[in-house]
UniProtKB/TrEMBL annotation:
Name this polypeptide is given: PAS sensor domain-containing protein
Species classification: Bacteria, Pseudomonadati, Campylobacterota, Epsilonproteobacteria, Campylobacterales
Amino acid sequence: MSMNKETVLDKNTFLVSETDVKGIIRFANEDFCK
C-alpha cells in the first residue's frame, strides 16, 4: 500500500519497526506511527 505522502522528520527522530517473516509489522515505535 502506497500513500504517496512525504513527511519531513526532525533530525533527532528515529524510526524503529519490526516485521515477521511475512513482512507484517509487529512493532513500531511512536515516531514511526506518526
